[in-house]
């Protein structure tokens, strides 16, 4: 990325039901105060009906389908409101939905002309009972429904990175700017679950590098893990940032802000890594 571009490329809005109902002006005003010159609004779009079994959790994960047009109009209005003060990019944090890719394709097709930015993330893996489970809900849920199903952290981690590779293949076809969200989200509960072999992570991420380069896909250098006590580090390893930079793969800072005060958190760490790479 340009050394002169201070960009928060992963943020949320009042349309996120596991976030905060603050208006986007509070997020963007904070970004301006902190000296950001580009700001991507990247809300979670709707999910297929019954994507996860728990109706309450389903409600919290993503906006209902009928709200997507309102969100897109809202993001466009924020873009217009701040024109000349900060560049606002209208985007979505799309999910890789194994077995339901047409659902995502339909969203992209409907809003292709408006979407400037896509963060493409893996949040869900098949688990106990053949249902989908969040890799980032709670450590107890992970242990009960994913770790018990796969039998070892090694197998869960491999399944996760298999999904990431499939997400990269899908993202490569998207016509707008795109990047993979929090590529090491699987480490969110690292301090509460059995340890993950660092050699396995290094091997899988190294194998992903040429796929990112070939697909023209960037990396969301997501610092939200710094705010998570069970993780305590960004969701992108420093060595991987260096490897991406060497391959010309775009590195975009992402606060993953779900509250206005999250905007800009971890930027100092990101800036320090940029100087090293």
Automatic annotation (TrEMBL):
Q: What Pfam family does this protein match (any one)?
A: PHP
Q: Which Gene3D superfamilies match?
A: Metal-dependent hydrolases
UniProt entry tagged with the keyword Hydrolase: yes
Question: In which domain of life is the source organism classified?
Answer: Bacteria
**Reactions performed catalytically:** L-histidinol phosphate + H2O = L-histidinol + phosphate
Per its UniProt record, what SUPFAM superfamilies does this chain match?
PHP domain-like
Q: Which GO terms describe its molecular function?
A: histidinol-phosphatase activity
GO cellular component: a single term: cytoplasm
- InterPro entries to which the protein is assigned, alphabetical: Histidinol_P_phosphatase_HisJ, PHP_dom, Pol/histidinol_Pase-like
Q: Which GO terms describe its biological process?
A: L-histidine biosynthetic process
Q: Any idea where the PHP domain is? A: 8-224
Q: So, what pathway does this thing act in?
A: Amino-acid biosynthesis; L-histidine biosynthesis; L-histidine from 5-phospho-alpha-D-ribose 1-diphosphate: step 8/9
Q: Which UniProt keywords apply?
A: Amino-acid biosynthesis, Histidine biosynthesis, Hydrolase
Which protein family is it in?
Answer: Belongs to the PHP hydrolase family. HisK subfamily.
- Protein name, as recorded: Histidinol-phosphatase
Species annotation: Paenibacillus montanisoli
């Amino acid at each position: 990325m340009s050394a002169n571009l201070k960009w928060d490329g992963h943020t949320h809005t009042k349309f996120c039901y596991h976030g905060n109902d603050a208006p986007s002006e509070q997020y963007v005003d904070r970004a301006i105060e902190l000296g950001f010159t580009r700001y991507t609004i990247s809300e979670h779009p709707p999910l297929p009906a019954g994507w996860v079994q728990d109706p309450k959790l389903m409600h919290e994960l993503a906006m209902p389908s009928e709200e997507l047009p309102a969100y897109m109009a809202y993001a466009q209005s924020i873009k217009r409101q701040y024109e000349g003060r900060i560049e606002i990019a209208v985007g979505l944090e799309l999910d890789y939905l194994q077995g339901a890719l047409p659902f995502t394709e339909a969203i992209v097709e409907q809003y292709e002309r408006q979407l400037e930015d896509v963060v493409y993330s893996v949040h869900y893996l098949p688990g106990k009972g053949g249902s989908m489970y969040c890799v980032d809900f709670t450590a107890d849920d992970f242990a009960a429904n994913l770790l018990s199903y796969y039998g070892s952290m090694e197998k869960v981690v491999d399944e996760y990175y298999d999904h990431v590779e499939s997400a990269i293949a899908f993202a490569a076809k998207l016509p707008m700017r795109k990047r993979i969200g929090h590529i090491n989200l699987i480490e969110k509960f690292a301090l509460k679950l059995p340890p993950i072999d660092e050699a396995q992570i290094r091997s899988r991420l190294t194998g992903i590098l040429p796929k990112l380069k070939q697909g023209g896909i960037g990396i969301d250098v997501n610092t939200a893990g710094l705010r998570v006590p069970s993780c305590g580090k960004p969701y992108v390893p420093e060595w991987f940032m260096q490897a991406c930079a060497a391959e010309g793969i775009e590195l975009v800072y992402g606060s993953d802000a779900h509250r206005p005060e999250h905007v800009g958190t971890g930027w100092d760490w990101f800036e320090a890594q940029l100087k090293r790479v």
